[in-house]
Specification:
By secondary structure, this protein is of the alpha+beta class. It is built from eight helices and ten strands. The chain folds into two domains: about 110 residues, Rossmann fold, CATH 3.40.50; about 100 residues, Arc Repressor Mutant, subunit A (Orthogonal Bundle). About 40% of the residues lie in helices and about 20% in strands. The chain is elongated, with a radius of gyration of 19 Å.
């Protein structure tokens, strides 16, 4: 949740925690971008009126950096033009203050349902194909030999293709570690380098990219 009114942020956060959610609060847009680069977030609650970097500017920067989680804008502005600007900037829903807390919960549940995918058996990106059930990787008609851990990491990146995956996400979801230790970063870098060598070195179009200070992303369209 990105909300600069601390009392309101505390009240909403407490209510969400009672509803079974884990909440991280940022009070500025700059702080929110740092949190998003370090934590996996399912849904963002974003206030429009923020100091320095506004909510709309924060949202545009989120989308620019590749963060695709749904965003619910919270604002005291209820004019149609304001809602249109928010939606055009990349928001998924809009809730005008003051709002009923049950409605906030309902909207969060609706947004969360949108991003729960059915489990695919094969994922493709350009000429790369990953067979999840057979644990086989093929690019350009060539079978790529990956270790078990390399496949797990590539599978995770492909399931989140187009979205920047932070190191904390990798630590939690691939290495199953609750805390990201500095020593893990070296392990990540080694595995990323090995995957990149097998995946991209023999091909002109690169698919695995490092977003400096943020994490990693699988995407096409860059050489």
């Amino acid at each position: 949740m990105i909300e600069d009114e601390r009392k309101l942020a505390s009240a909403i956060s407490e209510g969400l925690c009672q509803g079974g959610y884990r909440v991280t609060v940022a009070f500025t847009g700059e702080g929110a971008l740092k949190v998003l680069s370090e934590k996996h977030v399912d849904v963002v609650l974003l206030d429009v009126m923020l100091p320095k970097m506004s909510g709309l500017e924060t949202l545009r920067e989120m989308r620019k950096r590749g963060f695709k989680m749904p965003v619910l804008m919270l604002t005291s502005k209820g004019l149609v033009d304001d809602r249109v600007r928010g939606l055009d900037a990349g928001a998924d829903d809009y809730l005008v203050k003051p709002f009923a807390f049950p409605e906030l919960l309902a909207r969060i549940r609706a947004l969360h349902r949108r991003v729960i995918p059915s489990a695919p058996t094969r994922i493709s990106l350009d000429d790369l194909s990953v067979d999840l059930s057979g644990r086989m990787v093929e690019r350009g008609g060539r079978i790529l030999e990956l270790t078990e851990r390399e496949f797990d990491l590539l599978e995770y990146l492909m399931l989140n293709k187009g979205t920047v995956v932070s190191r904390e996400m990798v630590a939690r979801d691939v290495w199953k570690s609750e805390v990201r230790y500095t020593s893990l970063d070296n392990v990540f870098d080694v595995h990323i380098a090995r995957i990149r060598r097998k995946l991209d070195d023999s091909f002109e179009r690169k698919l695995l990219h490092t977003v400096r200070g943020v994490g990693f992303v699988m995407r096409s369209g860059e050489e």
